[in-house]
Amino acid sequence: MDFVVISIVLVASMLLLLAIGVWVSLALIGVGIIGLMLIDNGQIGLLFGTTTWGASTNWTLTALPMFIWMGEVLFRTRLASDLFEGLTPWLNRLPGRLLHVNVLSCGIFAAVSGSSAATAATIGRMTLPELKKAGYSDRMAIGTLAGSGTLGLLIPPSIILIVYGVAAEVSISRLFIAGALPGLLLVFLFMGYIVIWALLNKDQVPQESAADLAFSVKLKALKKLLPILGLIGFVLGSIYAGFTTPTEAAALGVFGALLLAFITGTLNLTTFSESLLGAVKSSCMIGLILVGAHFLSLAMGFLGIPRLLAASIGNLDLSAFQLLAALTLLFVILGCFLDGISVVVLTVSVVMPMIEQAGIDLLWFGIFIVLVVEMSQITPPVGFNLFVIQSLTGRNILYVARAALPFFLLIFLALVLIYVFPGIATYLPYSMTQR
């Protein structure tokens, strides 16, 4: 069957299944089955079984449920409320106030988890209920979380940077260092947008209390921040000091969260069981989507769609700028239907010869591809972060996508900036190497 016809059938099938309310994971699996049937593949059951096993037994995913459970514990005890009560006096003078908590929290947690899904799910559990309770714009609260959750892909330790480093034979440690400044750039862009939005929409931001501005109030609030900041510092420090792996740090994070909840007197059998059940539900939801994404990735690999798209670009004889523009479009389109890791795995080996021939720095290109994949994480119809947040809020997927659109554009702006100023990505790793 013609490549164009197959692509149209798969896109139409995906949109139809999502429109009638089929679970995301089942929709992904269904489209994968349709794709394999179009090429008369008789091993669908075997392929699904092996894919499911591979997707669910990946060791790098073991930290995911633990980090989610840590967020559930913080969310269901007094600690989440303490976080907001402690930050409120310190952020009152900054336009947007507590909306900045999503950005800062995701930036910090991304450095712990290395996973976009874990970042969005964990921070969302803590922040969305508190922002809603405080009277903030629902759309802005969801948008800031959707955009900031993508930081889990860029700020080290990043799972996708590890995958790219292995596929492109680039030093993973240098990739980690290269991701630091672009990650901070995104944080500042997101916070800057919140400031501008808040100044233009003052009626949608709760006004600060004059009493909260007193320095004594800030010092008192700091006591409520110290436990959570200490927990984050402990988890981060254990990883960067080399004492633990991210998975071990996640387990320590859960223990620390339970210990803090016990000390504050908010840990009981009810909160413990509810946090555990909530973590199981969220982890299963994300796990099922990963299984569906891996199966669809496999089906598309059999169909040859990523290879044909990449090969088509290679035959156009483009300049470096034109090549990057075409690859940006390619990765965003693929990211609408595949998870970020699958996009990298399926395309890097094909596009790498073109990148080397064009004289593009492979280290810089690693950061470039992660930024593009970040854009795809909040691109409908299958932006992974969109579905994670939809499960947390119960909102329609298109509502979540519209809320995330400004942050999609901000990530694109960051992409333009690292193209114009490549040193944003390359300065730190090369300067440290020279020393």
Protein described:
79% of the residues lie in helices and 0% in strands. With 435 residues, it is an all-alpha fold. It starts with a helix and ends with a helix.
Which helices and strands, and how do they pair?
Elements: H1 3-19, H2 24-38, H3 44-56, H4 63-76, H5 78-91, H6 99-113, H7 116-134, H8 138-149, H9 159-168, H10 172-178, H11 180-200, H12 215-240, H13 246-263, H14 269-303, H15 305-314, H16 320-335, H17 340-357, H18 362-377, H19 384-393, H20 397-420, H21 423-434
Helix pairs in contact: 1-2, 2-14, 3-14, 4-5, 4-7, 4-13, 4-14, 5-12, 6-7, 6-8, 6-11, 6-12, 7-8, 7-19, 8-19, 8-20, 9-17, 9-18, 10-21, 11-20, 12-13, 15-16, 15-17, 16-17, 16-18, 17-18, 18-20, 19-20
Which residue ranges are poorly predicted, with pLDDT under 50 across at least 5 consecutive positions? none
Q: Which sheet architecture does the biggest sheet show?
A: none
Number of helices: 21
Taking the alpha carbons of the first and last residues, their distance comes to 56 Å
